[in-house]
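Lay summary. Proteins are chains of building blocks that fold into shapes, and those shapes determine what they do. In this project we predict the shape from the chain. Here is one chain we studied, written as its sequence of building blocks.
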Amino acid sequence: MITVKSIHTLEDVRTFARQLLLARIAFHPDTPFEDYITKDGTPCFTPAECEMYNGLLYMCFAVCDKCGVDIYEIMDITDLPYTLPEITVQFHEFLFADNQNTAAMIFQVVKEFLADNNFAITKIEN
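And here is the predicted shape, written in a compact code that computers can read:
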């Protein structure tokens, strides 16, 4: 949920970026909010939300410019685990056809890594 209503400080810029990330938005400062769509082409945001978030983004650019800070660096939030709405893990049979134990071990390592980094496995394909 995005609760930021105004941007006045660099901390506000960071907070906005964190909230976008926590809302599971693969965010980039150069992308207007009208461009975010779901897999089926449905807009992620209402026109009112786009107007509000684009306004906040404009304020982010202004604050960063005023402070002499690169917006791309400050909005690169790497201190939070990155989350995605869904991830598909696919193992190709031909890679492990001769050794199912290796395939099972690799799958377990990948599964644990994803869980430790707040990814959710929503689908498994063989």
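What the prediction tells us: Residues 10-74 form one domain.
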